[in-house]
Known about the structure:
Blueprint: H1 3-12, E1 25-26, E2 30-34, E3 43-48, E4 52-56, E5 66-73, E6 85-94, E7 98-104, H2 111-123, H3 127-147, H4 152-160, H5 164-182, E8 191-192, H6 194-204, H7 210-222, E9 224-225, H8 234-241, H9 245-260, E10 274-275, H10 277-284, H11 289-301, E11 320-321, H12 326-335
Antiparallel strand pairs: 1-3, 2-3, 2-5, 3-4, 4-7, 5-6, 6-7, 8-9, 10-11
Amino acid sequence: MTTLNQWQSWIERLGYPETPRADRHSAPGFSVRRANDPASRPAILKNISSDGLYLLTEERWPIGELIPLTLEAESSPEDNSESQIAVQARVVRHGEDGVGLAFILPEGMDPNLWGVLITVAIILTVPKDLSFILRMLRMALFLYRLCGAGADESILLLGGELDQFRTEVSLQIALGAEKLLASEPGAGAMRAHPQIVANVFKYGSWVQDDLTRQLWIGLLATSCTADAIDDSNIPFVDLLVNVTPIQGTILIAGCEKLLEQTPQAPDHPPARIILAPDEMIQLTDMYDLTRIAENIAYLFNFGLLERNFDFTSYLPTESFDITPSALGLELYKRCQGHRTHPHCAYAH
């Protein structure tokens, strides 16, 4: 059975928990360090269960203190941060050779899911399988921090509907968004609308190019807010579903060029982004000008460009107007990770 099939079989058991058994497992190939103290010395993981872990360490943190930990396999590449698991744990006892801690899981996370995944991660020996499980575990923690129990919809989607390719793309989107959010103040308090998160995976997991995948990453990141759950990205998810890689390239170019323009005086007309045929060929890597025009027409029909291409003239094409509309510019900003007011004109 493949690792993906195993993952899916575990997800299918959500909601049908067995009697919990906090069996302890030795974990000689894993180390743990205090996440908020990069200078701290790694501790050896003596044993672990679904309830907690025991560390071989000279540290003696106070009983009851909440400790953010980073768990990683010693066999993982140093630059593979996606295989590092950040988890909260509370100190419950001191021993002669270390400390015992109890896991504090994100609200709404099924303890059985956590227990199965962390146990399997400990016993796996094939690097590829171990990397997959650690990344899935990291994504699950991220989703439950964002959505609480509402993350079940995304987890069940990943456990049933998505094949191996779409699961991998979903991993890239989720962990890419987590990385973007990590640099923002209050990242740990970010929350997201569960339906938006599920739809990002449902539709974004189909993409096969890096450009469109990055747009989905940015849109997921801007769906997360620290103040209150915000649903204003719902219409932008629906828009992005329809944008092909070529159309995304055209829209991004139009938005970037418009934002580069020097602001005009109030009495001047707004700038227009006009490209010559050779510039459009270079931009899109397409030599068929009619197909380029058709993609511009699609963007106009979605409301993302201000003007449609004029198909009525039989004269040679001299220029392409790719000036983004206000809606197109807003989609671009959100997909680049730029936050706007949650109650903008385009929000539900």
